[in-house]
């Protein structure tokens, strides 16, 4: 193999790198590699690869003047080095370089090229005018052990059915908990794919994972739940997200996928005199896709309920909007316990506002009931005890 120092180079970002990893790990099968022009056109025409659904061509078309100059100069059989964050990430033997329309590519992914769509704007900036195909090899990358871990859990509990959920848990709230429990109630093993942003999000991924692990360890049968980190790249965006979720879950060994009724990709369309959803487009991917109820808190039922079974109007229902709950946390406010478990909100606030209180011990002993013993308390302890006071109703 030619030394990478002598090869021409292409620059890609983490998002493109994560997609290349998914294919190499076999997680986007039936896609098995970078597609050439003819195969790309066939996927656009049919939405299939070898009789199995795949929503758009899997191509690599990095943007930038330097990348375009290199791509236009390449010859078939030439070896190049792909850099991610200036570090050698992969080597590729060129098979084909072909011109694409970046705007059309964006529409294939998102179903629109409306520039007011945030995903369209971000992806358009990343897509160049030329795509490259060829066999590539990832460099210096550890193997993905998650599939092995799932198989070990299956063997341990002799699982007959394995279900999957995709979520950001940004943050983890009561509706997430109900969805997890509902799914776990009808399966042997549950795999939660926790979406990890390729760039910084509102809550750090490790914080979100720690809160999910806490919930699983303390409130669920933990030998029946596996959490798998998954880079939330452009391939999971847009109206095809459910299809890609199904493909990834199937390739991880799941036979069921549960999605929420308010999932952004669950749009309806009219075809052949009947209403259909994106789920009806899934062909050849042997996985059962189940649509869960949307959960709300009803102030008449005074509990978390399914919108399908609650007889009261929307004006009695509180929806679980992650962005709004997160906004409360970012302002330093404890979300009501009907929205988020107090242990979770206390943990998140202690992470978002470390060392917030000038004299925590004084606040603790002035405001909260204590046993009379001098003890060391954390900010997390303080938030949890404060929530108990919020829930006290004897004076109202």
SSE map:
Elements: E1 8-12, H1 14-24, H2 37-46, E2 48-49, E3 52-53, E4 60-62, H3 65-73, E5 79-84, E6 87-99, H4 102-110, H5 118-126, E7 127-138, H6 146-157, E8 162-167, H7 174-184, E9 189-196, H8 205-219, E10 225-231, H9 241-251, E11 256-260, E12 268-271, E13 274-277, E14 288-292, E15 295-298, E16 303-306, E17 317-319, H10 322-330, H11 342-352, H12 360-367, H13 379-390
Parallel strand pairs: 1-5, 8-9, 8-11, 9-10, 11-14
Antiparallel strand pairs: 2-3, 4-7, 5-6, 6-7, 12-13, 15-16, 15-17
Helix pairs in contact: 4-5, 8-11, 11-13
Short précis:
Helices cover 35% and strands 23% of the residues. With 396 residues, the protein is α/β, with parallel strands linked by helices.
Describe this structure in words.
It is a single chain. The protein is an alpha/beta fold. The protein folds into 3 domains: 8-138, Roll (Sulfate adenylyltransferase); 146-295, HUPs (Rossmann fold, 3-Layer(aba) Sandwich), CATH 3.40.50; 332-396, no CATH class. 35% of the residues lie in helices and 23% in strands. It contains 13 helices and 17 strands. The strands form 5 sheets. The protein has a 5-stranded mixed β-sheet. A 5-stranded parallel β-sheet has the order 10-9-8-11-14, sandwiched between helices. A hairpin with a 4-residue loop joins strand 15 (295-298) and strand 16 (303-306). Helix 4 (102-110) packs across helix 5, helix 8 packs antiparallel against helix 11 (342-352) and helix 11 (342-352) packs across helix 13. Mean pLDDT is 89; it is low at 268-276.
């Amino acid at each position: 193999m030619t030394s990478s120092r002598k090869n021409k180079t292409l620059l890609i970002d983490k998002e493109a790198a994560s997609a290349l990893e998914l294919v190499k790990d076999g997680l986007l099968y039936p896609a098995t590699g970078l597609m050439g022009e003819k195969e790309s056109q066939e996927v656009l025409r049919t939405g299939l690869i070898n009789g199995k659904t795949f929503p758009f061509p899997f191509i690599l078309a990095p943007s930038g003047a330097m990348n375009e100059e290199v791509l236009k100069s390449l010859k078939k059989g030439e070896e190049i080095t792909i850099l991610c964050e200036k570090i050698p990430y992969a080597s590729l033997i060129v098979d084909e370089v072909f011109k694409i329309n970046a705007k059309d590519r964006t529409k294939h992914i998102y179903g629109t090229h409306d520039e007011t769509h945030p995903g369209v704007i971000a992806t358009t900036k990343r897509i160049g005018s030329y795509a490259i195909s060829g066999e590539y090899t990832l460099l210096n990358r550890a193997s993905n052990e998650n599939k092995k871990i799932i198989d070990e859990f299956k063997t341990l509990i002799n699982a007959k059915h394995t279900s999957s959920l995709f979520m950001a848990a940004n943050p983890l709230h009561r509706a997430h908990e109900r969805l997890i429990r509902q799914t776990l109630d009808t399966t042997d093993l549950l795999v939660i794919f926790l979406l990890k942003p390729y760039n910084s999000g509102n809550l750090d991924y490790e914080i979100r994972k720690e809160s999910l692990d806490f919930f699983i360890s303390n409130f669920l049968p933990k030998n029946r739940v596996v959490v798998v980190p998954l880079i939330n790249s452009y391939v999971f965006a847009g109206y095809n997200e459910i299809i890609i979720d199904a493909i990834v879950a199937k390739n991880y060994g799941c036979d069921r996928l549960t999605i929420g009724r308010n999932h952004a990709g669950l749009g309806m369309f009219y075809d052949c005199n009947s209403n259909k959803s994106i789920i009806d487009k899934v062909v050849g991917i042997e996985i059962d896709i189940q649509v869960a109820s949307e959960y709300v808190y009803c102030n008449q039922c005074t509990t978390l309920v399914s919108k399908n079974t609650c007889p009261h109007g929307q004006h009695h229902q509180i929806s679980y909007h992650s962005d709004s709950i997160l906004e409360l946390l970012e302002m330093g406010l404890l979300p009501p316990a009907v929205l988020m478990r107090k242990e979770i909100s206390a943990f998140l606030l202690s992470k978002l506002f470390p060392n917030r209180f000038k004299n925590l011990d004084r606040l603790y002993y002035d405001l909260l009931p204590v046993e009379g013993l001098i003890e060391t308390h954390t900010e997390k302890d303080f938030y949890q005890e404060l929530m108990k006071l919020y829930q006290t109703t004897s004076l109202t």
